[in-house]
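Many introductory courses stop at the sequence. We go one step further.
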Amino acid sequence: MGLPGIDLISSQEEGMDSLKELDIANVVRRAVEIHGKTREALIPILSEVNRVAGYIPQEALAEIRRQVHEPDEGLFLSDSQLFSIASFYQMFSLQPLGKHVIRFCENAPCHVMGGRHVIKAIQEGLGLNPGETSADGMWSLVTTSCLGLCSVGPVFFVDDDLYGNIAPDLVREILGRYR
């Protein structure tokens, strides 16, 4: 589901792994119309592109700069500033991810509560290491420094679904829900 009037072009239909260049411009234009041309709007704009495309293509960063950069109005925006924002926040991805994204907390509280065994079960269940996407494009495994849910560790998300207090023997059942 994307912005009104913006269709995501699938890689199977067009032989590409991202939006068409024209569609990127439209996604950015609509996000700028909704959120405005301000520095404060950059994260919501990047978030919308990430949500619609599944990641933030390099072309989108250049398009955001073209549409938001207004030196006459005192808004200076460089490619490196946009890249810094997009690469800093772990909620954004600069690479295409799988249909299902697992975000696993590797911070100390989750580790102490058995996270090492849970991530091992996930890796074995998917045949992936952190930072990898499966060859079929179904799964991506991403580690994060903290999900802010230390009281229910170990914790991970599959897409927008939260799983806490997980034991390694529950991983197979959880992954099966998404196959």
